[in-house]
């Protein structure tokens, strides 16, 4: 068994076994792949630091970033969730990573973890002598189709949404593309600038990702116009991707000035119809955040967790540990 650390992703790409583990052939979500991390490095200013343990049979990869003794997860606001990447049957390598990491860091803060990944990382690091605190950091809204077609799915939506779609669908013209289109993307950027959304974190990242997903056939890029002016200004635009039986809803925006037409809702319905009836997905993932409108479309809410992992003998961690212990005691006293 050996543990290596990679700051150069080109070095990882040249490693055939590791590159395959982190490829679309093996990972059916964009956030688990080398290409995603490369875009984070190129467009979002993140310095990758991949911790990799191998035993000759499999590998475990913990994608990290940061300098100094405190490292964090290699992700940002575009990442739906974070997790270690582990070959089948190589779970023990997570503990091997945890035992080796004190040579390079005394604290890790990992956020956006699904429950099962938070549990297995916490167990691995505790077994290696780290102190671990786990707390919920966010939520993830999803829809499991359970064999339903679009008609059955939409029949189960709230009455207010169904009424909106019935009244407004004829007033909005929609297009769903499975390739990147420069004009539609320009429309999206223009709409986003006028929408209620905060300033885009990294437009260059998102465009590069959309282009790559379009080339791979995974992109679903959609745009809406007024039905009586289909050549006029676009009113809403959305970016989804589809793979491995899951549709990921990455971005959506509509013009506030077009709100009376409900173009965002009509466009969402067109995309749900496409991914359910044509792409035959089993799950739709609406990413993180507890925005009220997500509950109209989704049916389950999954927690996301943050792990704070600390080496107890590192002096820099003592104030953090003390504060954590005080808060834990206070919470216990309050419950008592």
Q: What can you tell me about this protein's structure?
A:
- The chain has helices at residues 9-13, 16-21, 34-44, 92-100, 115-127, 150-155, 159-168, 182-194, 203-216, 263-278, 294-297, 318-335, and strands spanning 2-6, 48-54, 59-65, 70-73, 85-86, 107-114, 131-144, 172-177, 219-226, 236-243, 246-254, 283-288, 300-310.
- By secondary structure, it is of the alpha+beta class.
- The chain has 2 domains: 2-138 and 303-335, Aminopeptidase (3-Layer(aba) Sandwich), CATH 3.40.630; 146-281, Aminopeptidase, CATH 3.40.630.
- Strands 1, 2, 3, 4, 5, 6, 7, 8, 9, 10, 11, 12 and 13 form a 13-stranded mixed sheet that branches.
- A hairpin with a 2-residue loop joins β10 and β11 (246-254).
Which properties best describe this structure?
Aminopeptidase; 336 residues; alpha+beta; single chain; Acyl_CoA_acyltransferase
């Amino acid at each position: 068994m050996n543990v290596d650390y990679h700051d150069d992703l080109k070095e990882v790409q040249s490693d055939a076994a590791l590159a395959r583990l982190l490829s679309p052939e093996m990972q059916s979500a964009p956030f688990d792949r080398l290409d995603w991390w490369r875009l984070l490095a190129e467009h979002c200013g993140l310095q990758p630091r991949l911790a990799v343990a191998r035993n000759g049979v499999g590998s475990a990869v913990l994608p990290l970033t940061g300098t100094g003794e405190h490292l964090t997860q290699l992700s940002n606001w575009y990442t739906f969730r974070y997790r270690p990447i582990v070959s089948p049957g190589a779970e023990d390598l997570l503990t091997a990573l945890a035992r080796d990491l004190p040579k390079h860091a005394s604290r890790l803060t990992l956020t956006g973890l699904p429950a099962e990944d938070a549990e297995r990382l916490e167990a691995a690091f505790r077994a290696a002598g780290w102190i671990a605190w786990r707390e919920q950091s966010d939520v993830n809204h999803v829809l499991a189709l359970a064999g339903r077609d679009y008609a059955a799915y939409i029949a189960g939506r709230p009455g207010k949404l169904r009424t909106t779609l019935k009244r407004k669908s004829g007033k909005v013209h929609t297009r769903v593309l499975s390739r990147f289109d420069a004009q539609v993307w320009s429309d999206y950027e223009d709409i986003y600038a006028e929408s209620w959304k905060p300033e885009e974190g990294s437009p260059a990242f998102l465009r590069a990702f959309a282009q790559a997903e379009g080339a791979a056939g995974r992109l679903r890029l959609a745009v809406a116009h007024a039905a009586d002016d289909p050549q006029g200004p676009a009113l809403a635009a959305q970016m989804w991707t589809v793979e491995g039986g899951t549709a990921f809803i990455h971005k959506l925006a509509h013009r506030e000035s077009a709100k009376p037409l409900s173009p965002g809702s009509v466009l969402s319905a067109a995309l749900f119809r496409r991914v359910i009836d044509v792409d035959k997905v089993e799950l739709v993932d609406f990413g993180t955040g507890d925005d009220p409108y997500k509950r109209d479309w989704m049916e389950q809410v999954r927690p996301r967790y943050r792990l704070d992992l600390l080496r107890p003998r590192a002096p820099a961690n003592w104030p953090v540990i003390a504060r954590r212990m005080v808060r834990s005691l206070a919470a216990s006293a309050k419950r008592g």
